[in-house]
């Protein structure tokens, strides 16, 4: 092993298949296997100037650096998933040297082995459901129609052009729009609940994650389901078909499937 700190991607059981020859990890170094008793830590050397405690803390505030590091970390996990069942460790897990990694493996050996047994031959699928914008977004109030008895300005185009709308008419129309919005959102949430029940029944385990904010995720529509499912690899095709069949069941609802992933959501056991 070359000099530098040890970055740890995952823990797994020993496996015979070779990793991709051109695979590089965090900071451009190829991942190596560090064996200790019945476990293997997948590690690579990283420079102390970037991964010592204070430097790493500062880098984690740098979005560009963090994105590149997360991409390299995930690339190694994805490569491992094709040849074995990895137990991914948290981004930025670093030790001083091989001895520190082995001490970690020994201290957590029982937990690692139990979790690896539970996850063996299984992958994680992610499913998100969105109420599309027309369903999810409540109409904005019109400042011109603030007064209940005042006429709203004349419309510039359309069938109502040249005809003023009274404040009462505006409020009646807005009330109807709000009811339609609430009804559409409720239908989307009920659909998401039914889909989750159906998928959870086909999976060995499931996790409901916090719903994502559109402002943070950049996804269109309102997120009404954000779930992960632990599925035996041999049953993944059937699981995917179930999700695919639901995609056109409900107008105004979008279903997104991601995976298969290493079982990040299930690495810590039952919550």
From TrEMBL:
<feature type="compositionally biased region" description="Basic and acidic residues">
    <location>
        <begin position="169"/>
        <end position="189"/>
    </location>
</feature>
<comment type="similarity">
    <text>Belongs to the gas vesicle GvpF/GvpL family.</text>
</comment>
<protein>
    <submittedName>
        <fullName>GvpL/GvpF family gas vesicle protein</fullName>
    </submittedName>
</protein>
<feature type="region of interest" description="Disordered">
    <location>
        <begin position="132"/>
        <end position="189"/>
    </location>
</feature>
<feature type="compositionally biased region" description="Low complexity">
    <location>
        <begin position="132"/>
        <end position="162"/>
    </location>
</feature>
<dbReference type="Pfam" id="PF06386">
    <property type="entry name" value="GvpL_GvpF"/>
</dbReference>
<dbReference type="InterPro" id="IPR009430">
    <property type="entry name" value="GvpL/GvpF"/>
</dbReference>
<keyword id="KW-0304">Gas vesicle</keyword>
